[in-house]
Write a structure and sequence with these properties.
Radius of gyration: 47 Å
Number of strands: 0
Strand content: under 5%
Shape: rod-shaped
Length: about 140
């Protein structure tokens, strides 16, 4: 919205000059200027009040824009981003060693199996169909 002097502006200026006269025209111009200044001040105050209300509401309710960066516990990403303490690594290694020792003990106590691969099982995987004899 430009306030340059176009044909319309010249026409309105001449019409105001004829209607109000040269003595009243400066007074009317000042009143219009005051009115525009007051209107601008009120609109700026209204805009700042609306913005402060919006900021107050936003500060009270903070919603996360993205999900949390933390990976689920026990995942590879979690272990890479948050490596365990050396004590935890040592405890995990001893737990794994003790589980392996228990598994070896259980395997040695189990019944011995036949280790001869030449002996075939009693039942064959492919069985022949049985046909009933006609009597």
């Amino acid at each position: 919205m430009g306030f340059g002097f176009s044909g319309e502006m010249v026409f309105l200026f001449l019409l105001a000059l004829i209607l109000f006269g040269p003595k009243k025209l400066p007074e009317i111009g000042r009143q219009i200027g005051r009115f525009m200044n007051e209107f601008r001040r009120a609109s700026n105050e209204f805009r700042s009040q609306i913005e402060s209300e919006i900021n107050a509401v936003e500060s009270q309710t903070k919603f996360p824009m993205m999900p949390s960066i933390q990976a689920p516990l026990g995942s590879l990403a979690s272990r890479i981003l948050n490596p365990p303490a050396p004590e935890q690594i040592q405890a995990a290694e001893t737990q794994i060693d003790s589980q392996a020792a228990r598994a070896e003990t259980a395997a040695s106590q189990a019944e011995p199996r036949e280790s001869n691969p030449a002996v075939a099982p009693a039942t064959s995987p492919v069985s022949s169909p049985k046909v009933a004899a006609d009597v």
